[in-house]
């Protein structure tokens, strides 16, 4: 069983691996957020955060 289009809009894949987490989310058609505390930037994820605080701000928490 998969998730529908409405549910997909509410899903954000958060991970620290571009190859498995971010590419996997992209392959599934989901928004992605790369956790990268080192500060490197890449165009693959939809969002990049460098700290837990940035992630909470992105999530609106």
Q: Can you offer a commentary on this structure?
A:
36% of the residues lie in helices and 20% in strands. It is of the alpha/beta class and 61 residues long. The protein is flat and about 35 Å long.
Quick summary of this structure?
The chain is of the alpha/beta class. The protein is 36% helix and 20% strand. The N and C termini lie far apart (29 Å).
Write the layout of secondary structure elements.
Blueprint: H1 5-8, E1 12-15, H2 18-27, E2 31-35, E3 47-49, H3 52-59
Parallel strand pairs: 1-2, 2-3
Which short descriptors sum up this protein?
alpha/beta; 36% helix; single chain; 20% strand; 3 strands; 61 residues
Major sheet attributes: 3 strands, parallel
> What Rg is obtained from the alpha carbons, in whole angstroms?
12 Å
Beta-strand share of residues: 15-25%
Tally the helices: 3
Choose one word for the global shape. flat
Mean pLDDT: 83
Strand/helix succession = HEHEEH
The termini sit apart by 29 Å
Structural class: alpha/beta
Instruction: Indicate the percent of residues in helices.
Output: 25-40%
Number of strands: 3
Oligomer: single chain
Spatial order of strands in the largest sheet: 1-2-3
Low-pLDDT runs of 5+ residues are none
